[in-house]
Here is the input.
Amino acid sequence: MKERLRRLWRAFVNFAIIFSFIVNCILVLVLLLAAGPLLQIKTNLLEPLLYNLDDAFQGLGRTVIRTTVPVDQPIGIQFDLPLDQPLDLDFDLTINQDTTVVLLRDTSIPNTTVYLNNVPVRTTVVLPAGTPLPVRLNMVVPVEKTIPVRMTVPVSQTVPIRMEIPVTIQLGPAGLDPAVQRLRDVFVPARALIESIPDSVRFR
Here is the structure.
């Protein structure tokens, strides 16, 4: 009985050794056949993909946005305008109005007709100083003068603004560079792993 078990065990061991050898040969053959396509995927797909992603991230940081921003809204302006300069006046001033003048001294009016008891009498009339006389002024007075102007003029106005402002924005310096660098750092381990894989398998 023991001898029979030993023979069975030896037969099982021999079968296991042969089966293991065959399986290992098949695995080695599969690996050899699959190495070529895997290396081609590394060379033709993974490496270009990672390099293109890195270039795209760097290009994103170098991107420049050029556009035009339309502005159409009222803007309130409020400030004090100081004036300190001479002002030249040169114009004709038209005067047409009624006023009252007062005599500064006695004034004689010769050859004046006065009526005494409905009888006209020619005489000289003397108007005493201080007599008010209503007169109508109708004249043109030329004005030519330089006057100093020293004052502060308050300015409060709403101005409608309609314009187009050209805008140029560099995304990297505007704040995108740190985000781009973080994106590039995410792929550094993957690039290091892919670059460590040989491009081909050589048998000596």
In short: The mean pLDDT is 78. Residues 1-63+171-204 form one domain. The first strand starts at residue 64 and ends at 102. The first helix runs from residue 2 to 62.
